[in-house]
Design brief:
single chain; mainly beta; three-stranded antiparallel sheet; 1 helix; globular
Length: about 70
């Protein structure tokens, strides 16, 4: 699985505020994770994301999409 940590990066230190645990399917896939329902997202404190995996990930592309 993949752990996506969302938090604050300041002075060389990443402070995690919350995380998502995601199970991926093999192959090329698109995933959307809605983070706008979290308090810290709207407090304008979030400025960094950390991704870790127990396997190997290739060709990762992350974007922040504007909501409706």
């Amino acid at each position: 699985g993949v752990v996506i940590k969302v938090g604050i990066y300041s002075n060389g230190i990443f402070e995690e505020k919350y995380q998502y645990n995601v199970t991926l399917k093999e192959g090329s896939n698109d995933y959307i994770i809605r983070v706008s329902n979290d308090y810290y997202w709207y407090s304008d404190e979030i400025n960094a994301i950390s991704v870790s995996c127990d396997g190997v990930l290739y060709d990762i592309n992350m974007r922040i999409l504007e909501g409706d």
